[in-house]
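Model: You mentioned two targets. I'll fold them one after the other.
Researcher: Yes, keep them separate.
Model: Target one:
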Amino acid sequence: MDLYENPFVFGEVVSEPNFVDRTKELEQLVRDLSDGQKVFLLSPRRFGKSSLVAMALLKLRKRHIRTVSLTVSSYSSYTQFLEKFAEKVLRAAGPWDRVKDWVTRFARSVRPEINYVTMTGDVSLSLGAKTGFDPAPIAPDVFALPGELARNGGFRMAICLDEFQQISEFNGGSVENVLRNQVQEQREVGYVFAGSQPSFMKEMLSTKRPFYKAGPHMFLDKIPEDAWKEFIVRQFARKRRKVDEGALDALLSIANLIPYDVQRIAHELWDYAEIAGKRTLLASDVKWVSEDLVAGQSTYYEQLWQQLSSAQRAALQALAHMGPSQIYSQSVRTEYRLGPASTVQRAIESLNSKGILDRYKGHYFFLDPLFPQWIRLRAE
């Protein structure tokens, strides 16, 4: 990395030089996928789930394990998801002469259109272009593909299905049963089913659903303060800058230890120090940077606020000022005119479904930790 490049990365998958902690989780995930386990990775959004998986797949490739990664929510239909699943598996399994015979498996049900570029090894596939095409009959064959190719080719494979909770949107949810039936037979292929809505993922793994007891569960905790402090201090020291203890505490408190937001605020603090030529960064500098970020988001926050009901706004004000542990107390409900506990619960659950709040260790929190700061500043 160039000495002058901002080392704090957010909004994209973090590369190895900027990867913070997660040592145990990374080792466990690599080990499980190498062994052909089917792992369920649960995490609130912005906790670094995708970066962890990307790092695990990188380490697996260094072990000559073929890897595939798909984000389920990227696809608008079951057919498109199956096409991309097959395409990526074929690319990972290549070369072409190893996989071309797979096409004949679909001769009786559908004639797939496959385009192969010899120079690049790129594969594109279409399972059914006609309106009303039903992909369900060929889904078992598509999901069986990784196991067949791995067994016949004498290699191992690891597949990540990110935002896995969205898969129930396809084909009325029956896709879960089809997928479970196929992957449980694939000893040569490890899977990580990663989801960013833990409550919904837990529902998918409940006793009445196909993936009940299908594999081990891994829930991502927040990265500890000490690991963040060491990383931030080390990165600023590359430019001979010092971040004092008060600034570190302020940054981590405002970000609520959410990886995306720690990196976001640290990124802005780095740029602020560059522009201002500051050698030592204090809590007041972090405060200025965070308030500047809030100001930059104020139009978005205002639009979001206007879309909420009065009960939802009151619940957010109480959470922003008092925190989650006091939200149901009589004194807080009276002060913020929240009404009975049942009304508060409904408001909180609706905010959760809107992606404004999420749960961590039994408590609700703001997915964007700068939003409560905007709420507090707005009330001044």
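Model: Target two:
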Amino acid sequence: MSIGEERAKDIEERPEQCFDWEQFRAMHAEARFRSIFTTGAVIGGGSVFGAHHFGMSGGRVFLRRQPWLSALAIVGTFTVSYQFWERQ
């Protein structure tokens, strides 16, 4: 109601004119980059902590001996951090 009937009809006919695709692309590219960085930091720190907790020699050993847990942690961390960074 605040934009008027003519403007509303124009937007309804051509919705692509009201969305900035370049801004959308840049926002998601930044969210992906931050998510990858965040996931790397969390998995790096978490694997060292997990290795220490289970008495293993290092984080790589922990990640290789627990492949399902590692994959789940990586995918879950990336998904959650992407959702977080996208909304920021």
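Researcher: Noted. Anything on target two?
Model: The radius of gyration is 22 Å.
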